[in-house]
Amino acid sequence: MTFMRQELIQDIRNAAGCKPTAGTLYKAINRAVRKQMAKLEPVVSKRKLYYISAEFLLGKMLTSNLIHLHALEDVKTLVGEYGWTWKEIQDIEQEPSLGNGGLGRLAACFLDSIAELNLCGDGIGLYYHFGLFEQRFLNHKQTELPNAWIDTVSWFDRVPVDFQVKLPRCTLQPVRYDMDVIGFDGKKNRLHLFDVESVEEGIVKEGIQFDKTDIRRNLTLFLYPDDSDEQGRLLRIYQQYFMVACGAHMILEEQKQLGHDLHRLYEHAVIQINDTHPSLIIPELIYQLMQEGIRMKEAVRIVEKTCAYTNHTILAEALETWPMSYLETVVPHLCGILQALDTAADQRCSAAGVALIDADNRMHMAHMDIHFGKSVNGVAALHTEILKQSELHAFYELYPKKFKNKTNGITFTRWLHACNTQLYTYLMELLHMDSWQDERLAELHAYAQDADVIAHLQAIKQEKKREWCTHIRNKQRVAINPNSIFDTQVKRLHEYKRQQMNALWIIYKLKEIRKGNLPKRPITCIFGAKAAPAYTIAKDIIHVLLCLQDIIEHDARVSPYLQVCFIENYNVSEAELIIPASDISEQISLASKEASGTGNMKFMLNGALTLGTRDGANVEIADLVEEDNIYIFGKSSEEVIAHYEKADYCSRDYYEQDALLQELVDYLIGEEMLATGDRKSLHRFYQELLNKDWFMTLLDTREYIACKEQMLKDYENRKLWGRKMLHNIACSSFFSSKRTIEDYDRDIWNLG
Ligand code: 26Q
């Protein structure tokens, strides 16, 4: 290791010359690191995991790779000698935006932990040239631009592929981009992202518009292109099919090359299907096995023992069902297999609710995964229970043993060591660790009464706040008070996550301040969120928040006490800066709707306290830290589910019976908002909240306000708050994705 480090440093020096620019230096480091990565040997084991996912939200790789090579401190020192800060070098790297949020980031954390645990597992996905999109704010609204993240300096190798994907109207030539994932002890795994040779970036016109029918040129331009029309939906299926056709082919070729008998594929391979986006791998693998001379019945049995499915959502609108007519258009060669699978499933159970193809001739992707996979798992204890007891109850009765819970986790390498080196280093010293061990975090409990330790944790928090203030001032030209309480909600924008409830609180506080009820300490409400381009109400909520930000900023009576800051183009790199700086972690989804959440875990690990509902993994956080160390409010998932069943929630009743709620909601279309924002958007959102409010905002707003007030009050007892911080950090090792991966390996993969 020492020799490797010396060579790495020497290579950087040689390439950088004497007075490199930040760009030259970044390039030199990237090259030198890649040279070391190339020397690593692949991990081997009895069975290999293929983690197939439409998203891998990697984030920048520089710091994480250097940590894995045990060279971060040396390289940082060298960079300092050249007169650059580490942040200046990191800023050069483009972040690949190959994911939306939770599901994609989870896949990236898993790659990291699989390698760290010396398990053999590769990722399979797509190489989207413009990723999701880049968010810009204009006139208090979100606009979208292509995110051109691909750079000549890269972590990926281009690999030719000698296989073609035949579609009814054209044949596509795939090409593969491979990235090494550094593991333990000189070993590595890989991520394989497929692209089409014929893709053409030039067809993107204004914003993110392009010809959705031109599959040869558009296939890998964007992640989840707008699917609000039929052409967009067909393109999604083309993408999904292309990914699985390439993936299945790569898996079978690799297994054949290893000399493995495809009749016993499941002894050597396991395919984890990350939500239903890659579900077509089931019929495609059956098809390709049949091409290898295996009879259909056996092919089905092989696939059944090879594939496992993870469910990440219980929102009905996110469960993929495709009209068979679409599948006839895109994958006619698979339709016979799909029909046969439907018949086979029907023979096992004829209940309509578990059919692959429903009465409207729509194909239910999740149903196929459950019938023809060996396992189905939810991503947090509550989520799995809800799947078993309600959403997938019929399947649970049919296959009780297939259902498993695998509570999500996060990689501490990125979410502590890389993003909060100060805290990481302090904990290493305090707990006398030679090398990091997640479980040893629990030893921090011994210092719960130690005023010095608590003061130290708080000093680190303060330093991270100052760092973020500098960052956001440079990026967005805003001056945030580093001595304010940082109250943060960063996640995709969705009604069920209820950013709109947080907006109502801001209105409440704004009015209180104007009445003269001043907070003891200034508060900064921080948001980061992208809305799907065609999700109108989500964009309306962004509009409301940006209008509030403007109104407050321009009111000299309010702004010393309350600030709103919306982080533009929130992504992994922004998360790495804001999470360590935050005091309050907003996890306020409508109970039963957030499958797990993983941001909640990142905040906890970095010493923020959770303000949340009993939803997803919040439940497990609450069980671990116990009630004095978390702020829980709102109706339970049982109560919420009962409201849906009885269809008895009426937001207008809440509005009419509560003068405060009325005042807050009316503010949305009051003079001040209308003078700042767009009348149509504000009225649309107001009407939505009053007449629909499908995710029951007004149900919990009262309790939310009360709970947040309590939290702000408790913040003033600095010792007590510090003890709660310490307690949260000490309890967080359960949420390491190493623990999650060990669970998957023990109960599903058995990589051996
Ligand atoms: C489906 C159909 C059509 C178009 C888009 C989609 C679609 C796209 C993305 C459906 C779902 C997603 C992403 C889901 C997701 O990120 N889920 C999150 O997964 C995390 C990791 O398990 C959980 O922590 C979050 O609770 C969950 O919301």
Automatic annotation (TrEMBL):
Pfam families: Phosphorylase (PF00343)
Gene3D superfamilies from the UniProt entry: Glycogen Phosphorylase B
UniProt keyword terms in alphabetical order: Allosteric enzyme, Carbohydrate metabolism, Glycosyltransferase, Pyridoxal phosphate, Transferase
Top EC class of this enzyme: transferase
Organism superkingdom: Bacteria
UniProt keyword Transferase present: yes
UniProt keyword annotation of Transferase present: yes
GO cellular component, one term: cytoplasm
GO BP annotation list: glycogen catabolic process
Catalytic activities: [(1->4)-alpha-D-glucosyl](n) + phosphate = [(1->4)-alpha-D-glucosyl](n-1) + alpha-D-glucose 1-phosphate
GO molecular function annotations of the record: glycogen phosphorylase activity; pyridoxal phosphate binding
Residue(s) carrying N6-(pyridoxal phosphate)lysine: K602
Documented EC number(s): 2.4.1.1
Swiss-Prot/TrEMBL cofactor(s): pyridoxal 5'-phosphate
Stored InterPro entries: Glycg_phsphrylas, Glyco_trans_35, Pyridoxal_P_attach_site
Known role: Phosphorylase is an important allosteric enzyme in carbohydrate metabolism. Enzymes from different sources differ in their regulatory mechanisms and in their natural substrates. However, all known phosphorylases share catalytic and structural properties. Allosteric enzyme that catalyzes the rate-limiting step in glycogen catabolism, the phosphorolytic cleavage of glycogen to produce glucose-1-phosphate, and plays a central role in maintaining cellular and organismal glucose homeostasis.
PANTHER family with a match to the protein in the record: GLYCOGEN PHOSPHORYLASE, GLYCOGEN PHOSPHORYLASE, LIVER FORM
The family this protein is said to belong to: Belongs to the glycogen phosphorylase family.
Name of the protein in question: Alpha-1,4 glucan phosphorylase
